[in-house]
Protein backbone atom coordinates (compact mmCIF):
# COMPACT_ATOMS: atom_id res chain seq x y z
CA UNK A 1 0.00 0.00 0.00
CA UNK A 2 2.71 2.52 0.96
CA UNK A 3 4.64 1.86 -2.24
CA UNK A 4 1.50 2.46 -4.29
CA UNK A 5 0.87 5.73 -2.45
CA UNK A 6 4.47 6.74 -3.13
CA UNK A 7 4.07 5.99 -6.85
CA UNK A 8 0.71 7.75 -7.15
CA UNK A 9 2.01 10.76 -5.23
CA UNK A 10 5.01 11.06 -7.55
CA UNK A 11 2.76 10.74 -10.62
CA UNK A 12 0.54 13.51 -9.26
CA UNK A 13 3.58 15.77 -9.67
CA UNK A 14 4.67 14.57 -13.12
CA UNK A 15 4.76 11.56 -15.42
CA UNK A 16 7.53 9.18 -14.44
CA UNK A 17 9.03 5.72 -14.89
CA UNK A 18 9.93 3.02 -12.36
CA UNK A 19 13.71 3.15 -12.66
CA UNK A 20 13.78 6.90 -12.05
CA UNK A 21 11.61 6.56 -8.94
CA UNK A 22 13.86 3.78 -7.64
CA UNK A 23 16.88 6.01 -8.16
CA UNK A 24 15.16 8.91 -6.35
CA UNK A 25 14.43 6.57 -3.45
CA UNK A 26 18.09 5.65 -3.11
CA UNK A 27 19.76 9.06 -3.33
CA UNK A 28 21.03 10.78 -1.24
CA UNK A 29 19.53 8.68 1.59
CA UNK A 30 18.96 4.99 0.73
CA UNK A 31 15.25 4.95 1.61
CA UNK A 32 14.83 2.01 -0.74
CA UNK A 33 17.17 -0.09 1.41
CA UNK A 34 15.68 1.19 4.67
CA UNK A 35 12.19 0.32 3.48
CA UNK A 36 13.09 -2.87 1.65
CA UNK A 37 11.97 -1.48 -1.70
CA UNK A 38 13.57 -3.46 -4.50
CA UNK A 39 13.35 -2.66 -8.17
CA UNK A 40 11.20 -5.75 -8.74
CA UNK A 41 8.78 -4.64 -5.97
CA UNK A 42 8.50 -1.23 -7.57
CA UNK A 43 7.78 -2.73 -11.01
CA UNK A 44 5.26 -5.11 -9.44
CA UNK A 45 3.36 -2.18 -7.93
CA UNK A 46 3.46 -0.25 -11.20
CA UNK A 47 1.87 -3.27 -12.91
CA UNK A 48 -0.70 -3.59 -10.13
CA UNK A 49 -1.64 0.08 -10.43
CA UNK A 50 -2.04 -0.31 -14.21
CA UNK A 51 -4.34 -3.33 -13.67
CA UNK A 52 -6.41 -1.28 -11.20
CA UNK A 53 -6.70 1.49 -13.80
CA UNK A 54 -5.01 4.01 -11.50
CA UNK A 55 -2.05 4.70 -13.82
CA UNK A 56 -1.42 4.20 -17.52
CA UNK A 57 1.60 4.07 -19.81
CA UNK A 58 1.86 7.24 -21.89
CA UNK A 59 5.25 7.09 -23.58
CA UNK A 60 8.24 4.89 -24.29
CA UNK A 61 11.64 6.55 -24.16
CA UNK A 62 14.17 4.88 -26.43
CA UNK A 63 17.87 5.54 -25.88
CA UNK A 64 20.74 4.00 -27.76
CA UNK A 65 22.47 1.18 -25.85
CA UNK A 66 19.93 1.43 -23.00
CA UNK A 67 16.72 -0.40 -22.20
CA UNK A 68 13.46 1.31 -23.19
CA UNK A 69 11.79 3.29 -20.42
CA UNK A 70 8.03 3.12 -20.10
CA UNK A 71 6.67 6.41 -18.74
CA UNK A 72 3.45 6.39 -16.74
CA UNK A 73 0.78 8.98 -15.86
CA UNK A 74 -1.85 8.92 -13.16
CA UNK A 75 -5.43 8.49 -14.37
CA UNK A 76 -8.53 10.29 -13.11
CA UNK A 77 -9.39 7.10 -11.24
CA UNK A 78 -5.90 7.20 -9.67
CA UNK A 79 -6.41 10.81 -8.56
CA UNK A 80 -9.63 9.74 -6.84
CA UNK A 81 -8.06 6.63 -5.29
CA UNK A 82 -4.95 8.31 -3.85
CA UNK A 83 -6.70 10.11 -0.95
CA UNK A 84 -8.57 6.93 -0.01
CA UNK A 85 -5.31 4.95 0.06
CA UNK A 86 -3.71 7.66 2.21
CA UNK A 87 -6.62 7.66 4.68
CA UNK A 88 -6.47 3.87 4.81
CA UNK A 89 -2.74 3.95 5.58
CA UNK A 90 -3.29 6.50 8.37
CA UNK A 91 -6.06 4.32 9.77
CA UNK A 92 -4.18 1.03 9.57
CA UNK A 93 -0.66 2.06 10.57
CA UNK A 94 0.32 0.89 14.04
CA UNK A 95 3.25 3.26 14.32
CA UNK A 96 4.20 6.70 13.13
CA UNK A 97 6.97 5.12 11.07
CA UNK A 98 4.20 3.24 9.26
CA UNK A 99 2.61 6.58 8.36
CA UNK A 100 5.68 8.18 6.76
CA UNK A 101 4.51 7.77 3.15
CA UNK A 102 1.03 9.02 4.06
CA UNK A 103 2.57 12.04 5.81
CA UNK A 104 4.77 12.75 2.79
CA UNK A 105 1.59 12.89 0.67
CA UNK A 106 -0.65 14.73 3.13
CA UNK A 107 -1.13 17.53 0.58
CA UNK A 108 -3.54 15.24 -1.32
CA UNK A 109 -6.01 14.76 1.54
CA UNK A 110 -8.22 16.75 3.88
CA UNK A 111 -6.03 17.52 6.91
CA UNK A 112 -9.08 17.69 9.21
CA UNK A 113 -10.02 14.14 8.26
CA UNK A 114 -6.43 12.99 8.98
CA UNK A 115 -6.55 14.70 12.37
CA UNK A 116 -9.86 12.97 13.09
CA UNK A 117 -8.36 9.57 12.16
CA UNK A 118 -5.35 10.23 14.41
CA UNK A 119 -7.56 11.29 17.34
CA UNK A 120 -9.53 8.05 16.89
CA UNK A 121 -6.29 6.08 16.90
CA UNK A 122 -5.15 7.91 20.05
CA UNK A 123 -8.45 7.16 21.78
CA UNK A 124 -8.13 3.44 20.89
CA UNK A 125 -4.60 3.32 22.31
CA UNK A 126 -5.72 4.96 25.57
CA UNK A 127 -8.78 2.71 25.78
CA UNK A 128 -6.67 -0.40 25.20
CA UNK A 129 -4.19 0.68 27.86
CA UNK A 130 -6.98 1.34 30.39
CA UNK A 131 -8.30 -2.16 29.71
CA UNK A 132 -4.86 -3.69 30.33
CA UNK A 133 -4.42 -1.69 33.57
CA UNK A 134 -7.83 -3.00 34.65
CA UNK A 135 -6.73 -6.59 34.08
CA UNK A 136 -3.52 -6.01 36.03
CA UNK A 137 -5.56 -5.12 39.13
CA UNK A 138 -7.82 -8.18 38.84
CA UNK A 139 -5.15 -10.83 38.27
CA UNK A 140 -3.72 -12.69 41.24
CA UNK A 141 -0.06 -13.58 40.69
CA UNK A 142 2.29 -16.02 42.27
CA UNK A 143 5.39 -14.45 43.80
CA UNK A 144 7.69 -15.73 41.04
CA UNK A 145 5.50 -14.16 38.31
CA UNK A 146 5.22 -10.78 40.05
CA UNK A 147 8.65 -9.63 38.88
CA UNK A 148 7.97 -10.61 35.28
CA UNK A 149 4.60 -8.88 35.26
CA UNK A 150 6.09 -5.78 36.89
CA UNK A 151 8.87 -5.66 34.29
CA UNK A 152 6.45 -6.16 31.39
CA UNK A 153 4.07 -3.58 32.86
CA UNK A 154 6.85 -1.00 33.03
CA UNK A 155 7.97 -1.81 29.47
CA UNK A 156 4.49 -1.55 27.96
CA UNK A 157 3.67 1.53 30.02
CA UNK A 158 6.79 3.25 28.72
CA UNK A 159 5.98 2.17 25.15
CA UNK A 160 2.41 3.47 25.47
CA UNK A 161 3.60 6.81 26.87
CA UNK A 162 6.11 7.14 24.03
CA UNK A 163 3.53 6.28 21.36
CA UNK A 164 0.92 8.57 22.90
CA UNK A 165 3.35 11.48 23.19
CA UNK A 166 4.48 11.26 19.54
CA UNK A 167 0.97 10.73 18.23
CA UNK A 168 -0.25 13.80 20.14
CA UNK A 169 2.77 15.72 18.84
CA UNK A 170 1.97 14.64 15.27
CA UNK A 171 -1.63 15.83 15.65
CA UNK A 172 -0.44 19.23 16.97
CA UNK A 173 2.01 19.68 14.10
CA UNK A 174 -0.60 18.78 11.49
CA UNK A 175 -3.05 21.20 13.15
CA UNK A 176 -0.40 23.96 12.98
CA UNK A 177 0.32 23.10 9.31
CA UNK A 178 3.92 22.26 10.15
CA UNK A 179 3.51 18.89 8.49
From TrEMBL:
Q: Which Pfam families match?
A: PadR
Query: Can you give the residue ranges of the Transcription regulator PadR N-terminal domain?
Result: 7-82
**UniProt feature coiled coil, ranges:** none
Q: Which InterPro entries match?
A: Tscrpt_reg_PadR_N, WH-like_DNA-bd_sf, WH_DNA-bd_sf
Q: What is this protein called?
A: Helix-turn-helix transcriptional regulator
Q: Which organism is it from?
A: Psychrobacillus faecigallinarum
Provide the taxonomic classification. Bacteria, Bacillati, Bacillota, Bacilli, Bacillales
